[in-house]
Design brief:
single chain; alpha/beta; Rossmann fold; 5-stranded parallel β-sheet; 12 helices; 5 strands
């Protein structure tokens, strides 16, 4: 009783609490509602046009829809950091068609995503593109189950590292990158999926991170990727070698911005892939 009186004197009488609705859980039936941002046709056309250019060529003006699309995408990613919602509907559709699993799923960042715009003939019913612009290996690992394993492909093509080096998702380390690659390869193998591991394409600088010198780190990580692929007995494709200018940067003939391949660059990469697979 004394304790109750002291509490009343020190804290005062409790104020009445207004009744409010409390959700049972943040787990909902449709977690992707409002988080899937459709790419406007004008934006697709713009990046398709860029893929036709060589480095230094005059660029077309970006469409007015581009900024709004980028802003909406950035807002959605605050609630979906790994972009699990991006391909969810298509994954469900493909998973339902159990008689036709894909032959290869391409997992990667913008270099993979733009490949489909530069060479749409490569990606068909049995070769699926799951690239997402700006992503790091950590984000790819988080969506590996939904975007790769659930589709039951014969093989997965993993191309990651550019955005880890750039620090797109915050500070990281070479050790963390290696762990993420190891984890994706282990998950693939555990599910009977063959692995094609791609070298990080060359880049002398990142326009969005001008204070970084990426070339030495790319070379170091590629040396590890090659050795790791040999140890794991998986396919390694040296994209760095086939589109490099010989001085650790991407050849200007094969890129429109010094980082992303253009249609000709992707053609060189495709031939390297075909030679190894």
């Amino acid at each position: 009783m004394i304790h109750a009186m002291i509490a009343f004197i020190l804290c005062g009488a409790a104020a009445p609490v207004a009744a409010r609705h409390v959700a049972a859980s943040a787990m909902v039936a449709e977690p992707c509602a409002g988080l899937v941002i459709a790419v406007p046709d004008s934006v697709r056309a713009y990046f398709g046009a860029l893929a036709e250019l060589a480095q230094g060529a005059a660029r077309p003006a970006p469409p007015p829809e581009l900024k709004a699309y980028q802003a909406a995408n950035a807002k959605a990613r605050k609630s979906d950091w790994a972009d699990l919602c991006r391909y969810r509907a298509d994954n469900e559709r493909r998973s339902a068609d159990s008689a036709r699993p894909p032959r290869i799923v391409f997992m990667g960042d913008s270099i993979t995503e733009l490949w489909a715009l530069a060479d749409p003939a490569l990606f068909s019913a049995d070769i699926v593109n799951r690239g997402i612009s700006g992503q790091t290996s950590a984000q790819m690992l988080l969506r590996f189950q939904a975007d790769v394993i659930a589709l039951r492909p014969a093989k997965v093509h993993i191309l990651a590292g550019t955005n880890d080096i750039a620090g797109n998702a915050g500070p990281t380390s070479a050790a963390q990158f290696r762990d993420n690659i190891r984890a994706m390869v282990a998950l693939a193998k555990a599910n009977g999926i063959g692995v094609i591991l791609g070298a990080i394409p060359p880049a002398g600088r990142f326009a969005w991170k001008p204070g970084i010198d990426p070339a030495p780190r790319i070379v170091d990580l590629n040396a590890w990727l090659k050795a790791f692929a040999q140890a794991e007995e998986i396919t390694f494709v040296d994209y760095h070698e086939v589109i490099s200018d010989g001085s650790r940067s991407i050849d200007g003939r094969f890129t429109f911005d010094g980082v992303h391949p253009n249609r000709i660059g992707y053609g060189e990469m495709k031939r390297a892939l075909q030679r190894n697979f």
